[in-house]
Design brief:
By secondary structure, this protein is α/β, with parallel strands linked by helices. Helices cover 53% and strands 12% of the residues. It is elongated and about 110 Å long. It starts with 8 loop residues before the first helix and ends with a helix.
């Protein structure tokens, strides 16, 4: 199927809301980490996102407060404002066999690197792959609208992610953001890539043009060979014929020019005047 390249805010607002209907588990104690990572490690594809408490002062940014890692049925909200970025979590983030799907992944990883250094592997950014399906939009909200025909609410984006307790609305928002990345990714993979077909068409046109050029060059060489194989006197004769034709064409062009036509008209008038005087 072909997707829209862009979508307006008005069109997006008319769509039904995407909503995660699985289990949401808040992780804020280190003793929970081992079991959570064991579950995540059993999946080949998981959703990925982060949240940070907004700052309303110029030049001031806060550290990442929440890491969301989601399977199709469970979403884990890891409260990094309450606990460290555990080594077992880093193993998930560094495992190339586990695909972590997100939007603007680079920005989320920069925030996590402020907490701890690690080597990220297996990350897939929807913003980077969407153009392969002809999609120009970058925001997760519009990517969801185009691919899933569902809008992602952003009502909780600027809420306090370092609050002592996350509200139900915050939990649903955070879980949906990570989970919907899986849905978008899996649906895209089930759809033909526009970019791949365009590349195939371009390659075919290039091959056709190359064959055409080869044929034209071959015909030119054959004509040159035929000319060289003619006896010298015939080649000179053919060249003279070409030169005579060119001279004749140029002469005809000169005689038909506006200047020569005016000269002819003046000559005719003089002849008529002379004839009248003789009479």
């Amino acid at each position: 199927m072909a997707y829209l390249s862009t979508i307006t805010n008005e069109q997006t607002a008319e769509l039904p809301s995407a909503r995660f209907d699985g289990e949401i588990l808040v992780v804020e104690r280190e003793e929970q980490v081992a079991e959570v990572c064991h579950i995540l490690a059993s999946h080949k594809v998981i959703g990925f996102d982060t949240e940070t408490r907004p700052s309303f002062k110029a030049g001031v940014t806060n550290r990442v407060a929440l890491l969301q890692l989601s399977t199709p049925k469970q979403c884990f909200l890891i409260r990094l404002c309450r606990m460290k970025l555990h080594k077992e979590i880093l193993r998930i983030l560094s495992n190339p066999r586990i695909h972590k799907i997100g939007a603007d992944v680079a920005g989320d990883l920069r925030a996590l690197h402020q907490l701890r250094n690690f080597t990220e592997r297996g990350f897939i950014d929807l913003q980077q792959i969407a153009p392969d399906w002809g999609i120009e939009e970058k925001s997760l909200r519009k990517l969801s609208a185009i691919v899933l025909n569902e809008r992602v609410s952003k009502a909780q984006r600027l809420s306090n992610w370092e609050a002592s307790t996350l509200t139900p609305q915050q939990k649903m928002y955070a879980a949906t953001d990570a989970w919907v990345c899986i849905k978008i990714y899996e649906k895209l993979l089930r759809s033909p890539r526009i970019k791949a077909s365009q590349i195939a068409d371009t390659e075919q046109k290039a091959q056709d043009n190359e064959l055409k050029n080869v044929k034209q060059n071959s015909d030119t060489k054959q004509v040159a060979k035929l000319h060289i194989s003619l006896p010298l006197h015939k080649r000179v004769h053919n060249n003279n014929k070409s030169e005579n034709k060119e001279e004749s064409r140029q002469s005809s062009k000169r005689h038909n020019s506006p200047y020569h036509k005016r000269l002819k008209r003046r000559s005719f008038r003089k002849t008529d005047d002379n004839n009248e005087n003789q009479l």
